[in-house]
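To the team - (3R)-3-hydroxy-L-norvaline complex, inputs and output below.
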Amino acid sequence: MIREKILVIGASGQIGVELTLALRKIYGNANVVASDLREENDLLKGTGPYVSIDVMNKEMLHVQVIRQNITQIYLLAAILSATGEKNPNLAWSLNMQSLLNVLDIAKDEKLHKVYWPSSIAVFGPTSPKKDCPQQTIIEPITVYGISKYAGEFWCNYYHQRWGLDVRSIRYPGLISYKSAPGGGTTDYAVEIFHEALEEKKYECFLQEDTYLPMMYMPDAIKATIELMEAPEAKIKIRTSYNISGMSFSPKEIAAEIKKHIPEFSISYKPDYRQQIANSWPQSIDDSVARNDWDWKEDFNLEKMTKDMFENL
Ligand code: VAH
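Output:
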C-alpha cells in the first residue's frame, strides 16, 4: 500500500469538513492535513493536523506540499454562485488561480492524485433543462459557472499534457447538517431545516416551483471517495463528471418538512438568486458516472429529510 499524505484545501467549508473527516477515517488522521484561510472548524479540532494556507500564495503552498510530503491534494476552496455575482473579479481570480497553483505544483511534485469539484452551475440557459447530459451545449452565465467550466478544461489539459491524475465531479446543490453552506443559490435547502426547527417558518429566496438538482452530503462524500478510489483506467471523463441524487422544488421540500413539523409554513420572496437558479438545469443525467465507476445515490428527498431532522 503506497503511503498517502493528503492535503485538503478549504477544509473548513461545507464540503471540506465532511470530506476531511471521511478521508481521515480511510487514511488515518495524521495522513490527512486540513487547511483553510479561516480558522479550524470546531468539528475538525482534535481529529488531525491543521495548517493555515493561502492557496493564492503559490510559493507558500509549494513549500507546505514539500515539507508535509503531500501525495494528494483536494482543492475545495471557491467562491460560490451567489457571492460570486456580488464580487466577479474576486470569484474569477480565486476560483481560477487557486486551481492553476495546485495543478502546477501537483505536476512539478508528481503528486499521485488531485481532486477539484466543479458544479452543475457550469450549465446555462441553453443547456437542456431535463436530464442534462454529460456532453451538451454549455454556456454558463455566472462567474462561478464560467470559472468552474474553465477549470474543467484546465484539469483535462494537465491530464492530457502531463498525465496528472486530476479528477472532478459536477456537484448539484448540497445539503448537510454538519457545516453551513457558503454563499450558494441552493443554500435555501439547508437554511429551511434550521429555520423550520427554530422559527417553524421560512421565507424562501426562490419561487416555489424552482426545481434544482440536489444531493445529500453523505452521497456527495461517497461519490468523491468512490471517484478517487476508482482504478485510473475507469476514468474516461477528465473535465468533470455529472452526478445526480435528486431534484426538488422549495414547495416539495417544504411539504416533506411539514410531515415532521406540521405547523411549519413557508413564504416566498425571490431575489437575484432566482435568475441564477432559472439558468440551471432542473435535473441531471449521470449515466456516464454510473457506467464508468458504478455511481449510485443512497438518499432521496424523504430519506434525507428524515436523516436531517434526526441529526439536527
Ligand atoms: C451554489 N451550492 O449554489 C453551489 C452549487 C449547484 C449549486 O454549485 O453555488
